[in-house]
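ugh ok fine here u go
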Amino acid sequence: MSANFRDFEKSAWVGAIVHDGETTHVNSIGEVAQDALEAFLAAAPSRTYLAFTALQARLFYERGGWVWVDPTTMQPRWPERYYAEYRTTAPQPTPVIRWIDTWLEPNYRGIPSKEDLIPVTVDEWDDKDFHKLTGKGVQNGKIIDYTPTAVDPDLVAQAITALDKFRAELFRRIASYDFDIPPECVAYQKQLLDIISGVNAQAATLPVAPVLSSLTPPNPS
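structure:
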């Protein structure tokens, strides 16, 4: 959509909530007059629409994706869209281990709760000097410049390649089906991220990847 942010601010925005039996999400957002929003939501059947800010609507239209909704609160699970993940139990400062566009994740079950993530602004996300695999950490709820313990750069490069390849194949297999990501797949990705971020500075080799060929579509019944 070519409209700029000011165009989005002129209107109110609502998303149609989809309940597909397994997940609750919004995959379309529409425009209503600002002075009609309250009446629109009041007249709509319960649990069918969710109000969005102008910024959320702009990000949805310009960058795509879908918004995962908590079926209990009927609010977005990750309203800021962009987040940084870190080890919440590690002594701080601790490295950022993953940057997440939550609205493009094909399976929300692999994303920590927003309380265990650091929100990232749009400008920070778009700044490749800020949003990068290494060099950032978390301290006292803020993202800071951080230099981890030295790790073999060749091993880090191998880990980045292995992670990209594994994620592509994993998401290819689960994108069309509502699989829970197996725990061993989550653990493997975290092991690679620990090498990349410097959390595991003692690693000498890459971990062994789980076999993905066992991830097959459920049998129709």
